[in-house]
Amino acid sequence: xxxVEQSPPDLILQEGANSTLRCNFSxxxxxxxxxxxxPWGQLINLFYIPSGTKQNGRLSATTVATERxxxxxISSSQTTDSGVYFCAVNTGNQFYFGTGTSLTVIP
Amino acid sequence: EPxxxxxxxxxxxxxxQEVILRCVPISNHLYFYWYRQILGQKVEFLVSFYNxxxxxxxxxxxxxFSVERPDGSNFTLKIRSTKLEDSAMYFCASNSDRAYEKxxxxxxxxxxxx
Lengths: 107, 114
Fold this sequence. Notes:
The complex is a heterodimer.
Chain A: E1 4-7, E2 10-14, E3 19-25, E4 31-37, E5 43-48, E6 52-56, E7 59-64, E8 69-74, E9 83-90, E10 95-97, E11 101-106
Chain B: E1 5-7, E2 10-13, E3 19-24, E4 31-37, E5 44-50, E6 53-57, E7 65-68, E8 75-79, E9 88-95, E10 104-105, E11 109-113
């Protein structure tokens, strides 16, 4: 099956710092989503982004499908941004999840 | 905003017992899924369901697992004889009229097999 790798695996930021998370995938995909898993385990939709760039407040995402990667930008990080960020790619009837980036934002 | 609801939030069971996890997908969605996440690991696909039948399943989804849509609103995952390694968070998800559309997740059921 398709391989979905995320980097870095772990990230610690000072509150207010910016960061870039990366998602690489090994094959063509129909779609890509970014999720935030909060400390309570909930998976929250951040972006539905098959290609191009989208912005939502302090977060933005870019997918370059032809080069098989997506980036998630977090600006002016806050402690509530802590958690695990997953990308998930669709190749038919399912989404394959990446390995995740665990983000800790310290005050 | 509509949401996927799952019950129970926590389930503790003895090894060898049957469990049924319940989900109510978003009402106008047509594709339904079960995923699981073992503590500290990534989210793994179990099964997708469309038009009252399984459309795809993973290697994890063996004969011990089954899914059902018993009525117009509920979507269930049954594990016939639980094993210790079935302990995980189980997520239900749904999306609308195409399998690649935006995926919405429930809050999960934490299953602990003792």
